Amino acid sequence: MKHPSAPAQPAPRWTRPSGRDSRDTLWLTVSHGWWLFLLSASVLRADFQGSSHLIGIDDPPVSYAKTQAVDPIARLQRKIDAGEVTLRKDPKYGYYPSLLEFLNIPVSSQVLVFSKTSFQRDRISASSPRAVYFNDDVYVGFVKGSEIMEVSSVDPQLGGVFYTLDQSLPKPKFVRNDQCLECHQSAKTMGSPGHLVRSFVTEESGQPDLNTGVSQVNHRTPFQERWGGWYVSGQHGKQIHRGNLLGAKEVLRNEKEPNFRANLDSLRNLFDTSAYLLDTSDVVALMILEHQSHMHNFLTRLNHSARIALSQYGHVRYLKSPVEAFLRYLFFVEEAPLTDRVSGSPEYARAFQARGPKDSKGRSLRELDLRTRLFKYPCSYLIYSGAFTQLPAPLKDQIYARMLDVLTGAHPAPEYAARLAPETRQAILEILVETQQDLPAAWRAEVEKGSKLKASYAR
After folding, report:
1. CB 109 within 8 A of CB 121
2. Does any domain span residue 68?
3. What parts of the chain have a pLDDT lower than 50?
4. Are residues 437 and 353 in the same domain?
5. Which of 251, 283, 315 is the last residue of a domain?
6. Residues 264 and 147 in one domain
7. Is 67 exposed, middle or buried (0-12, 13-18, 19+ CB in 10 A)?
8. Residues linked to residue 37 through DSSP beta bridges, in sequence order
9. What is the pTM of this model?
10. pLDDT in tens, 101-129
11. What is the pLDDT of residues 189-224, one digit of tens each?
């Protein structure tokens, strides 16, 4: 179904980056990290002044390498070692189906990247893409024909933690691999260990074309700049993207024939999908992945900055600018608008939205819109994650106070007024009061005040 008034978007034009940008891109593509989700040609924007500066994670209070992780994979390994969990090995797919089931990762979250950007890049091509499956805090990578499973997870205090599992061993053992921080602690992960979704042009072989540059992708990225180096399935109307294109010839053809290889319900006609759990690379899953990867990076950066500030100064007053930038991202203030309806796999949409929680009216922050924006109620669902709820208390108190200002209009700002209608702000406020466990009492008092006001108008 198409949006009736959706205008066609102009086809993207490729530009050659500066020499320094080219060198940066080369370093990224030949490094050892594999969760470098590569996908274009725009300058990396800073979320706030200093957001690209590296955090000293080796020293207290972060002590990344010395701290025992408590992320889902670390917890799973401890259960495996204790004999409490047994992963079943499928003759075709190895431990993947069992692991996804145990971690409650929907198979329908599958997205496929054909760029040669993994440490297993020799096995990756347009005919043999890497599959990624994910939930709110774990990412599992599948490379066809490889015994090595790639897994990364989000630890509430450490940020991104990276693992490999050699499926040829008699017993599954997830091995933490901090070498991945060569890429995954950089300016592009906001200076703390994190994840990336990126977009760029590839050659027909899947090798990144270094002449076209690279761009980081999140919910602020225009639709037409997304998914270079990825397969994309699903419907998106007249909106143009860079997915499913191999080499310069196809990029040029897409300029003349927009979406000639898009709006696909299956990828079976592009390559042999029989080795994969599904024949799709879901467009909605990609959009969720883009939002959440940067949101997690933001949370990790705030966590580390706050802990360092508290250890040095005893307060977090210097974090006002990062908090304001975080709020803009949390509330999708700078989200690139959709100009046509987007739809992917019904199975993925159902699985994602079913995770809840919902308020007494059945509303949820996970409810998708997909007509003009990603979510119906634009406040990130990762506010329920351990990465948010375990932020240092002084920082979280500051965030909650500013969130309440935004949602009640107590200190109005033009950017919020333009993107969040009063009824939307009220709905988000009511949803959070019923579903977020650690809100300050002032939040509930605000909702009760609004309810009394409505009742007086009714009389």
Report:
1. no
2. yes
3. 1-44, 452-453, 455-459
4. yes
5. 283
6. yes
7. middle
8. 197
9. 0.87
10. 999 999 999 999 999 877 787 899 999 99
11. 887 888 988 888 888 888 877 676 667 899 999 999
